[in-house]
Amino acid sequence: MTSVKTHRKRYYITTPIYYVTAKPHLGSLYSTVLADIAARWHRLKGQEVFFLTGTDEHGQKIANAAALAGQDPQSFVDGFIPAYKDIWNKYHIEYQHFVRTTDPEHKHAVQTWIEQAKAAGDIYKGFYKGWYCVPCETFVSEREEDVVQNTTGPHCPTCARPTIPVEEETYFFKLSAYQDKLLTFYKEHPEFINPSERAQEVINFVKAGLKDLSISRTTLSWGIPFPGDPKHVTYVWADALMNYVSAIGYSQPGREQDFRSWWPADVHVMGKDIVRFHAIYWPAFLMSVGIVPPSKLLVHGWIQVNKEKMSKSRGNVIDPLDLYNTYGPEAIRYYLTRYIAITQDGEFNITDLEQKLNSDLANDLGNLLNRMSVLAHKYAAYMLDPITVWSASSLELRNECSNVQREMNMYMDEYMFHLAYSRLWRFIGKVNSYFHENEPWKIAATNPEKLKEILSATAHSLYTIALLAWPIMPAKMVQLLESLGQLWEPNNNAFKEIEVNVWNKSFIIKKIDTLFPKYESTPMVTPASNQTEQASVQDYITIDQFSQIELLVGTIISAETVAQSEKLLKLQVDFGSKGVRQILSGIRMYYSPEEVQGKQGVFVYNLKPRTMLGLESQGMMLFTKDEHNKLQLVLPAVRVPNGTRLQ
């Protein structure tokens, strides 16, 4: 097959193209942010990147929506483009091209492909009688009809909406002829669909048998005219998928080299609901005309609200503009990347969002930068020259810089962004521990050289953090770099610099405004005259309520990390005559297993057990935070027998 990429230092990534029947929602933002992060990561590594996004503007659904709005289809779709470009700009989406399926170049590419597939013997005229899902633009085969049935006819197996009967002349693509070729392709390219669970679903579907695909309509006028037959317009999926090649020069005179240098695409990013079209139709379309398929499909789950997929019909769609106005773009980029795993559906929750922004961004990262800069200016140590001799604890931190860079690179290459940034935040926890344990505020006045070493090690660590976090929070990380007196451009292959990890930089520590604000949920408003009385009553609990809580002293006899979590330690706690219990505690960022083993602590003994990551936790350990925001164990003043209850 032809069209093998000639420049491996080039990286080509795409989003799905979005239907323009409404403004962008959180689901479309999620796909686009994932693609932007991957694009920025490869820029960080010195590669030339082409990042494509755009809109899908043909089909029955668009025609129907335009008619309801009292507009012609072209004017209707034109009206949505500014909303997409505006929100992508607000969220710092740095794409190279915005493709529209109404672009003349795209129309030419689709018609060229049809003519070439015809010449290859893969397109023929026939007659279609069956069912069609307008919202999904999907023909429902007989095999699929058995998935969901009701008295009025089959429902779509993808969206569960009713389908409509369709009976018309059509052109078919010989999809059935590609069944064995596709199965061979999947076997030879096991990395094609990521995550692998999605791959098996596709393979099972293909093994069950493929039918030829209708690729034209006669009952619809809003689409790309089918070449050689003016009664027909092109089926929307045979139109839309071609955007990935039309945008980089396919079939365009004078752009042959562009196409050769960018294709095949390195990654198509998409939601799981459209993986079948991309994993079956798209490779077959390309094979028909001798073009190699893309290298990878990155298939993410759905964002859910209250355990349900977001949809207009359920009334639970979240507007990215509202989130932008409340939290800013980079906080949302961070939360979507870190806390919604690509491998499964993810719950979007405002309360959890605010808690994570406060703990991870404001406390862990923002407070670290603030503490360092305040101390540097208080003791006139804000100009830091390179350090020639490092202490053991500083060298340990430098080694951890190398570790986090290497491990993040592994996760990012696998597109496990949530794991990559969990790893980075464990490193941020290490830097906080280093700063706290060295207590620079105690030696600042008496040992200025040691103070500068601690500040320099912290600044080098923050420099690494800024570069590694730049793909998710580009503007904030540029601010962080500016606070260190550093100017940086991603095209200079900054990744190589942190990979070498030579701590020989000079820094000028500057005071900047708070990097990350804290958020507080809006309290209930009560009349001013009753506010004090209401608060005092609501804050009380009764002695009976308090007496129900069993607070017991126990000794941690063993502790180990939980492999699937960046926060949890699994503790075995001895409560004397009451036995040993397993308790999971989210303290991994503050304590190693060795640091807590053998310690006595205070535990809520009669808390209802709950399961986390397949492990049962049978209680809760109590902590408080010190002035440096580090968790400290709540300990009895003297050692007491295990199982002693607090009075």
Automatic annotation (TrEMBL):
Its EC number is 6.1.1.10. Binds 1 zinc ion per subunit. The keyword tRNA-binding applies. A motif ('KMSKS' region) lies at residues 309-313. Keywords: Aminoacyl-tRNA synthetase, ATP-binding, Cytoplasm, Ligase, Metal-binding, Nucleotide-binding, Protein biosynthesis, RNA-binding, tRNA-binding, Zinc. SUPFAM superfamilies: Anticodon-binding domain of a subclass of class I aminoacyl-tRNA synthetases, Nucleic acid-binding proteins, Nucleotidylyl transferase. It holds the Pfam family tRNA-synt_1g. Homodimer. This is Methionine--tRNA ligase. It comes from candidate division TM6 bacterium JCVI TM6SC1.
